[in-house]
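Review this chain:
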Amino acid sequence: HDGCANCAPPNAPMEVVRDDVMAQADATTSEQNAAKERYSLSFASFTPGRGALDESLLGLRFRVSPLAFFQVNSAAANLLYRAAGDLAKEENREDGGATEAVTADVLYDVCCGTGTIGLTLFPSPFPRLVGVELEPSAIRDAWENAARNFDAEKLRDDAVTFIAAKAEDALPKLLRDRQGGGRAVAIVDPPRSGIHHKVVSALHANREIDRLVYVSCNVETLVDNAVRLCSGEKGFVPVGCLALDLFPGTVHVEAVVVFERKKE
């Protein structure tokens, strides 16, 4: 690694996270050399040890494996996830008065990574959390992060569930199976490509999800998804948004938009 993250000063300390192959005592020389080349590391600079990073966010501790997603700008991520959480748990009153707390049975954390957003909102105000993420190592991290931050009593009765799968494969069935299960809130934090059209359709069709928070690193795909989410008489309507400069020195921003279900 010849440079540094765009949010870090040039003299920021750097830490090597071990590659699983390099850490294996029985790995062949060719396997170790391939791993070394992949990460541009010399064995002189490589320190065997932890296979993950530890991060703190909103008072919780998180394990982050090398292939798991985690915001590169931790300080700004605290602001981002606090804002996303506030938008998820507070809603505007119909009479125009001050916001009031959302009452919902479950939070769906779509593209949940290591469980960061969902776990910061569990068990209050959301007593049940369901996270979906494609990367298996991130889901392993999410389970460990739940155990790190909450005792067994809070996690009993499947209060927290993390699923390693494509969101477009898992979410439609999860929502179909839960029909009639009470009010729900969803948070989506997809990659730059946005959320899959099957996920958009599932969120749009499930009327029990009446509040949706969309965290986006690409406003173009956000707009495309928003048009589909807001289509029809039973779709959503955007009620608030904000932008955070998570990537100083670049043209990119992180956008957060909150949608509410259109009233009958």
Summary: The two ends are 55 Å apart (CA to CA). Residues 74-89 form the longest helix (16 residues). The longest strand covers residues 236-244.
